[in-house]
Amino acid sequence: MKFLPFFIMGYMYCINKSSVDRLILTYLDVILAISLTLSVILLNHLFYVSGLIGVLMAVAMSLALTSRVGDYTVAFSRLTYTIFLLSYMPQMFIRGPIEHWLSLDQYVLSGMSFAFGLILPVAVGLFAAMQRNDRFWKYVKLIIGL
């Protein structure tokens, strides 16, 4: 029940996607500036308002990037489940042994954790996707979400 307003708004957006997208693109700069400012200000205060503003900002940013990114995201999107499944291990390696051995700033560790949690699963996914579909690789692909 707590997340029902988000579900309803998502459903309404899905029904009226083209007209809402057109409206967002018309006022894109204003929407991005206001939503970024409000989401930072309201982050810890109003759960539903800050959440809806964050969703609006994410939709506006994705619409702004759609024309610039092209088909790369479609090719990349087939690896998202692989990234989800395989990102934990490299991120915890950075947060565990690397953080213990090196005294690095938390921002550096977060950046390294993000980079390794993205790059290594993508590399594994791309490597597995290039392999032939014999019995072994068929199961490996299934296990890593391809």
Structural topology:
Blueprint: H1 4-15, H2 17-26, H3 28-41, H4 47-69, H5 72-77, H6 80-86, H7 88-101, H8 106-130, H9 135-143
CA-atom Rg in angstroms: 20 Å
Major sheet: none
Order of helices and strands: HHHHHHHHH
Q: How far apart are the first and last residues' alpha carbons, in Å? A: 33 Å
Mean pLDDT: 83
Low confidence ranges: none
Structural class of the helix and strand makeup?
A: mainly alpha
Count of DSSP-assigned helices: 9
Proportion of helical residues: over 70%
Q: Quick one: how many beta strands? A: 0
Strand residue percentage:
under 5%
- The coarse overall form would be globular
Can you summarize this structure?
The chain is mostly helical and 146 residues long. The chain is built from 9 helices and no strands.
